Amino acid sequence: MGSDDEVFAISGPKHMMARSGTRSTPTMTTVKVNWDSSEHRRCIAACLVKGTYVMESDRTKGRLGTCRALASAWWESFHFRLHDVLHCECDCVFCRNPFKLGAQRWSIYGAILEHVPTAAGGELRRNPSAPRYIVAFRGTMPPSHRGDTHANVELLLNRQHGCRRYLDARPKCVAAVWLAGHSLGASIALDVGRHMMTDDRRRNLPAFLFNPPQVSVAPLLNALRVPDVARRFLFRVSYAVKAKLGATTELRPLERKMEELFERLAPWAPELYVHERDIICWGFIDYFEQRQNMLRNPTLHGTKLSLRDMLLFLHAENKEGKQVQPHLLPSARLWKTSVQGHRHGPHGLLQWLEPDWMLNLSPRIYRYPGA
């Protein structure tokens, strides 16, 4: 038996479950699902992501394919079945080397789960608000997972677009799917969703991104306890500088590319679930909140640009590359909580299985003017 965190009957969304039995031998009787409820959709998406964590744990602990496996309860409880397992080999320098110094490792980083309609009156009926498939991506697991560490480094350097997991995930998604991910997995889901909106078919896939990571100066500003007035001033100066640089001859092509990108991404509004005290996703919180303060500022278009992207663009041989900062989104719905005391901390996935009233969620939709 795994830890309590891996057992659905113990750690699942209790407000959606009716259970019997004891804590040591819990028995789930029913799970009530309302697909029209944003709370239920959030909890289900988080449960499926949790299932991918548990499936990788099942694999590493020798439970996969046995009666001791725990992952399936995290999706079967909501009438999903495993359609495909997403896995790939690690492409870090230790696993891919000409001297074969270490065996190449592989891991499960996600799953494609198919919703099975429930029987009603002898017929299978699909709720119109339910997805046909959900593609779920897990986040980082213990340091022994080299692939996770390598993917995190690539994300830190904004080179995740060429990472094997990201490349492997994009063609696996079809039109009638939802995307869901936590932490590193949220970054993969975000990349896939952006890719689907910018290809020729422009597929708008609902996305549930839990604690999405974004590298920014926000943690430093918070650590230095920079006052809000000074913070707003710094961001205004930064956006003004970006706007001026974007108007130069050398960087004007990048600005035009970002204008086109924002136009294509405008209809897509992923659901971002963030905690005010989670250092990993402070970048997203600051970006959208500070951009909102710039709506009537003439340098607003500077919010579409990144200084790091500018430097990379100036030194890139291929000026048509798409390696832009993932937080540069025209639209998003930000679900923010500040509730403390959850045993998994502000970056934990299981906090998102709680009901709305416990999280005190405050959703806000952000749209770039004209989007």
TrEMBL record:
List the protein's name: Fungal lipase-like domain-containing protein
Q: Which organism is it from?
A: Panicum virgatum
Q: This protein's superkingdom? A: Eukaryota
